[in-house]
Structure formats: structure tokens, C-alpha cells
Design brief:
By secondary structure, the chain is an alpha/beta fold. Helix content is 36%, strand content 21%. Strands 3-2-1-4-5-7-6 form a seven-stranded mixed β-sheet. Helix 6 packs across helix 10. It is globular, with a radius of gyration of 19 Å. The N and C termini lie far apart (42 Å). The mean pLDDT is 94.
């Protein structure tokens, strides 16, 4: 659990890609400059960015060696940089900083977001999409299982993601802002073992809860989480599960 698992994360590629494309559709015209896919992961959005901006230099940035290795296979990026978003700085001011499902892993958004905006070229755009699932049953139950099985051992910081209106208020002094939220209803197929919601979350939201557990402890955590999810997200007659998922979006066009 020291690094991301690209294959496991990609199992739900279509569900994760849709909000990324919804964000890209709202990006306005750009000034000159490169495109930065910040927190690019395995490069899933790289082809769409390259298709939209074929004449631009596309740079991918991520803190995971495993994800960057997979992103390189797509041959979409002119350059891939290993860096942590917390202290990342571009070599030259980019025309677009595009961050899909990445900034939710970085704390202190009231400092982070204006800092990223300040790095844009004049007229540049900051486009961000993040899950906002902290209050959802799936995520509350992660905390409940951790507190029940391993009290005082698992410390996971609350999600830093704010409401769409909070980002609008934060960024309005910097330029033109478009902010919104979307509630997606994922229809998760049955999985070979365990609950479909657990299968979806184990490559992302569940990672910080189990990263320091032993293999036996991790199996106990997964079994308890599977059991409690069965009552919260009951299967449909065909075995699929409805999984509501909220995402926050904002696009800043810097003055």
C-alpha cells in the first residue's frame, strides 16, 4: 500500500472518466502556454487533453511512480514529472492547470487553491474536479470500521474539499469563476468477492485506512466493511448496486 495500484484504480475507468470530461467541457479558450495535468495518475485524461489541445505541450505531474509509468504508455505527454502537489511549481506559467480527482488528497485548500491560481499565465485557467463524499455512508462506514476494530490506531484526516460556493467565494477576487456540484448515480456491477462499493473505494478512499495494517488486519477490515455495506447499499434484483457519488467542480479564468 506504499504506492497506488493502477490496475485496481482503472477497474472503474468509465465512471471516473466521466466527471473528468465534464470538467474539460467547461474549460474556456486559453492563452498561449503549456497544459499541465496536475495529479495525472495513470494518464486516463491524457488522450482527451491531447485531442482538445493537439498543438500544446502537455505535461503530466504525479507523486506516484507506478501511475506515471502507466501514463507514459499512453504517449500523450511531452513530459512526465514526479512531484508532490503540495510543493509543485511549474517551470513557466501554464495556460491551463487541470486537476482531476487529485486536490482532494492535499490539505489546506484556502492556501493551496490561490497558490495554484497565482502560477497561471495571465488569462490562464485553473480547472478542478474533486469527490465530496465525506458525509456519504460509504465513507462514514470506513471511519466506523476503523474506530471499532482499531481504536486510536488509524488516523485519517478529514477531507479538505469544501462546497462549490466556498471555492467561488475564494476565487472571485482572482477572475471569472464557474463552480458547481454534480451528484452522479453509479451503477456498480457485482464483483467476484465482497461488496461492489468496497471494490470501488478500496483503490482510493480506503487506502489511507489500511496502509499501515498487517495483511491479517487488512483482511479483517475488508470483511467488516463488506458486511456493513451490505445493509447500507442493498443489491438490485440483477445484483448491481446504486452508489450515489457527489463531485465538486470549479473553473477559474484568471484576470
Amino acid at each position: 500500500m506504499t504506492d497506488w495500484e493502477p490496475a485496481r484504480y482503472a477497474a472503474y475507468r468509465d465512471l471516473r472518466l466521466r466527471p473528468a470530461l465534464d470538467l474539460l467541457a467547461q474549460v474556456p479558450d486559453l492563452p498561449r502556454g503549456e497544459i499541465v495535468d496536475l495529479g495525472c495518475g495513470d494518464g486516463a485524461v491524457g488522450p482527451a487533453l491531447l485531442s482538445r489541445y493537439p498543438a500544446r505541450s502537455l505535461v503530466g505531474v504525479d507523486s506516484s511512480d507506478a501511475m506515471l509509468a502507466n501514463a507514459a504508455l499512453r504517449r500523450c505527454y511531452e513530459r512526465l514529472d514526479l512531484a508532490d502537489i503540495v510543493d509543485w511549481q511549474p517551470d513557466t506559467p501554464p495556460a491551463l492547470i487541470y486537476a482531476n480527482a487529485a486536490l482532494n488528497w492535499v490539505p489546506d485548500h484556502t492556501t493551496l487553491i490561490p497558490r495554484l491560481a497565482a502560477q497561471l499565465a495571465p488569462g490562464g485557467v485553473l480547472a478542478v474536479q474533486m469527490p465530496r463524499q465525506g458525509g456519504a455512508r460509504s465513507h462514514r462506514m470506513l471511519r466506523e470500521v476503523a474506530e471499532t476494530l482499531f481504536p486510536d490506531r488509524i488516523k485519517v484526516a478529514p477531507s479538505p474539499v469544501m462546497a462549490a460556493g466556498d471555492y467561488a467565494r475564494l476565487l472571485l477576487p482572482l477572475g471569472r469563476v464557474n463552480a458547481w456540484s454534480t451528484d452522479y448515480l453509479h451503477m456498480l456491477d457485482p464483483v467476484a468477492e465482497g461488496h461492489p462499493v468496497r471494490a470501488f473505494t478500496e483503490s482510493s478512499a480506503m487506502r489511507p485506512y489500511v496502509k499501515d495494517l498487517t495483511p491479517d488486519e487488512r483482511r479483517a477490515f475488508v470483511a467488516a466493511y463488506d458486511e456493513i455495506l451490505t445493509f447500507a447499499y442493498r443489491p438490485l434484483p440483477d445484483g448491481r448496486v446504486l452508489f450515489p457519488f457527489t463531485r465538486i467542480f470549479f473553473v477559474l479564468e484568471r484576470s
